[in-house]
Predict the 3D structure of the following.
Amino acid sequence: MPDRTKYMFNGYKSGKGRIVLQVVRRYIEQHPEAGFDDIRQVFPDELQKTSSVQFSADGMCVVKRLNDVTDKKRFHLNEEDQLQAKGEKIVVSREWNVINFKQFIIRARQLGFEISR
């Protein structure tokens, strides 16, 4: 049974995938000098991986360049969900479970972002 817990971030209430999108969006807003590689360092692939759940290789990352996405169902691709980092369009993974979302919350808190239930 999928976990449908709703979380809060910056006045926005939603599921795990949308909260991750909002955190990455906020980070980019606060760090306009950050390029794609910088954002990948801040939100490394390891945050997405778990030993209990194996996504496709395309889905095992937090952010990806829009032009590099091959498995379109695994990312937030709507125009309003695409983010810009120094002129590059990037997209954020939709695939989060209870285990890797906990890892993401820890990283978000390290960056000064608070996510609550």
Notes: The CA atoms of residues 65 and 90 lie 4 Å apart. The chain has three helices and six strands. Helices lie at 16-30, 36-42, 98-110. The two ends are 19 Å apart (CA to CA).
